Amino acid sequence: MSVSQTKYKVPESFAKNALVDETSYNDMYRQSIEDNEAFWAEHGKRVSWSKPYSRVKNTSWDKDDLHVKWYEDGELNVAYNCIDRHLKDKANEVAIIWEGDDPKDCRHITYAELHAQVCRFANVLKSLDVKKGDRVTLYLPMIPEAAFAMLACARIGAVHSIVFAGFSPEALAGRINDCDSRLVITADEGLRGGKTIPLKSSVDQALKHASDVKNVLVVRHTSNDVEMVPNRDVWLDQAQEHVALECEVEPMNAEDPLFILYTSGSTGKPKGVLHTTGGYLVWASMTHEYVFDYKQGDIYWCSADVGWVTGHSYIVYGPLANAATTLMFEGVPTYPDASRFWQVIDKHNVNIFYTAPTAIRALMGQGEAFVKQTSRKSLRLLGSVGEPINPEAWEWYHRVVGERRCPIVDTWWQTETGGIMITPLAGATDLKPGSATLPFFGIKPEIVDAEGKVLEGPAEGNLVIAESWPGQMRTVYGDHQRFIDTYFSTYKGKYFTGDGCRRDEDGYYWITGRVDDVINVSGHRMGTAEVESALVAHAEVSEAAVVGYPHDIKGQGIYAYVSLNASVDPSSELATELIKWVRTEIGPIAAPDKIQFAPGLPKTRSGKIMRRILRKIAEDDFSNLGDTSTLADPAVVDNLIANRQNKK
Ligand code: 6R9
């Protein structure tokens, strides 16, 4: 990424009204590090506890005694915090604005209505025999019922696992089985860009490989006909007619699980990242308030999908815990046309807008006219998340969308971290395009070299976090050892993020991207191993190696090297078929952009594929392939170069 030298000072008008200015950021940050436990004892009070905590922090990152507990003797309920506690003053304020795929569809849901909906939903779950601690899989479009379902689970202490509705039936089945869900919640169909997405029928497909599921609860959304299996499938609207209107909240221990969310790693199948109740809620709500400078009455919009962690923390839990008005958008940025985002902002007077670099780059490519035909006067603050934002996209977002008036918070974090970790605070931090800038309160980032030596001052290396924070994931569901191995074994006593990072002379952090075999396609995390195992599952494929390469819009594209079985000839038809195959095995987001048939892959004598070489060839940069002398057969490299698919 090119390095931008530009610096944007905090606008004075912004600093004056912001929750924190530079001095208070420095003071609070210092306190949060020097007296970490006292800091979190104080800020834990931002949520309501039915039984107050007396122990704040009990954490160890020693891999022989690894445990992470925050507020461990406290009790609370997340649904109570996101709904009930606001009813006294804010029952009639809007909690959720829903904007449908079709610009004519929109709903405003007040806190009172949210309460009623969630109570009835929770009672339906109970009627289907869902109990505290049970896992429930959600496979839903971006409709308010997704938030109702999450909060209904939280209300009765069930653990939700949301599977992004773009994942295939196979991927869904794997995630249902991994956490042993007995109930799946879905909708008849989803709607995106004017097209219907057959969700219920995908669930039916998935359940052929997930036989322990007892019930499927179906939300009526498009109302098109779908098949309902007797004694298994239940319409939500019908079930709701027979349940009580009130549902008590279940008191939960701070460390009881709240949700599981599967995410890709560098090896093996996706990991079930487990987040718990108390620390997560403190983290999600505090970061939401400070990072977005949220004030009562603001209209806040995060354009993510609830199938990703950003949707969990910054569409649902963070904003609702803060009694905010959160906008939920079902559609895509380019439907009916490329000005949709900006039209939605005008229609609902959005003040704070949070989206991903891939969307910004795609819209940038459509030209400024789509933006300029809208007013956007309501906008005050912009945010970015999901991947490094290139300075060109940052400048466009700042100049064209925000008319140089709105600061941009480039927020670095991960599914594992529960919430934002490195970010500017708009009233406190001067901005540099492309830099996530400085740590949030309580976060102690460090840059280490390959041997684990901590580098001081301006430096480049791997990003680790040296101290626990309340929103940290607690384990990999069902595989605690994998949690320890993945995050705490590379660097002793530190959390390894998997990201590379540079720190400049001002102490600003610049995330340079993943240093492991994870690629980031349009802000979606994909393990190269997952795509490879889908490819080799095809009957004609003997071996596959997948790498990322720079892609103008997606950030990274997927480049697959495929070796075929001896009797099979490469063809463009087969390449198309393999792309389709991966779409069905995992989902459209995993479909390779390029397939290169390769008679052989570059391997060391011990059989390890040298991905470094494959990455270079995919980038069309093979002038310096480094040391190839350890290859078992150096001639394969010439063949790969000759047949490369990204010739410039
Ligand atoms: C929230 C989310 C996490 C990975 C992370 C990093 C990349 C996220 C970023 C960023 C640079 C930012 N990433 N935000 N890189 N600047 N502002 O995206 O979670 O899906 O788990 O992805 O995304 O590489 O390690 P998740």
Description:
With 648 residues, this protein is of the alpha/beta class. Helices cover 30% and strands 23% of the residues. The chain is built from 21 helices and 31 strands. The strands form eight sheets. An eight-stranded mixed β-sheet has the order 12-11-8-6-7-14-15-24, with helices on both faces. The protein is globular, with a radius of gyration of 24 Å. The model has no long low-confidence stretch (mean pLDDT 95).
What percent of residues adopt helix (DSSP H or I)?
25-40%
Q: Main sheet, how many strands, which sense, barrel?
A: 8 strands, mixed
Number of helical stretches of at least 4 residues? 21
Q: How many β strands by DSSP?
A: 31
Low-confidence segments, ≥5 residues, pLDDT <50?
A: none
Structural class: alpha/beta
Q: Approximately how much beta-strand content do the residues carry? A: 15-25%
Strand order of the largest sheet: 12-11-8-6-7-14-15-24
Domain AMP-dependent synthetase/ligase: 85-468
Cofactor: Mg(2+)
Modified residues (N6-acetyllysine): 608
InterPro entries: Ac_CoA_lig (IPR011904), ACAS_N (IPR032387), AMP-bd_C (IPR025110), AMP-bd_C_sf (IPR045851), AMP-binding_CS (IPR020845), AMP-dep_synth/lig_dom (IPR000873), ANL_N_sf (IPR042099)
